[in-house]
From TrEMBL:
A Pfam family annotated for this UniProt entry: Epimerase
GO cellular component terms listed in the entry, alphabetical order: cytoplasm
GO molecular function: aldehyde dehydrogenase (NAD+) activity
NAD-dependent epimerase/dehydratase domain mapped to chain residues: 3-94
Protein known as: Nucleoside-diphosphate-sugar epimerase
Amino acid sequence: MHVFITGGTGLVGSAVVTELLAAGHTATVLARSDASAHAVTTAGATPLRGALQDLDVLRAAAEEADGVIHLAFANDFSTAGAVARSVAEETAAVTTLGDALVGSDRPLVTVSGTPWIPGRPSVESDSLPTDGPVGGRGRTVNAILALASSGVRTSAIRLPRTVHDEGRGGFAGLLTDIARSTGISGYPGDGTQRWPAVHARDAAVLFRLALEHAPAGTAWHAVADEGDQVRDIATVIGRRLDLPVQPVPDEAFGPLGPIFATDQPASSDHTRTVLGWEPRHPSLLDDLERIRP
């Protein structure tokens, strides 16, 4: 299968490209810069120069592909306005990709976060939130999954709050970056809230399985660790960086503060049973032990 990929040079995307090529697929990867294009070529895929805003480029690439995996997101969480712009940009892009595949029965795999459900781990049948700082992403994913009725084999991989590799990535990576800049390994609330996690290379396997096998209109959880307490995450970060560990106000985390403070464990039992996905790489807490001081 020849696959068009957006976001194929990021932490998750680069792992997805490697996984697809190892499985015998070929890939064209959107590349915004010469450096990204070089990374794509080095990985063995074909770069396509362009950005997520280049909707004509996206449409043409999707029309020529046997399947599409969408991963790109600006990841600018500095202000509420920046988050809104990132969501709007992604919505326009993935809508264009979906429109290009209508009536083709080809796969379109998109991405969202796992939902949070009070009192229990979320499961694949739970609805995505459609309000709050990133509620627009939930509305967009719902619209894309609805294209199953228009001849697109859509599926959505729900990524947990931390997708990691060697201590980098996701919410835990943001905590690490904040700790380096402030000199404190801080956490919101009392730190007992739980965040789910997955290793990037395990997530990549699930993207491939969804591309190859997922029925139209389905959602899957890329969750290896159901939920680590944020205080435990901050403790490992503090030990690795030799910094004090302590609670800090939610406001210190900007627009993501309310999400950081939310208990949000997630299950992947259905995903593992139906698609045969089995995580094999290090857990988040083990991986954080690789953080360099």
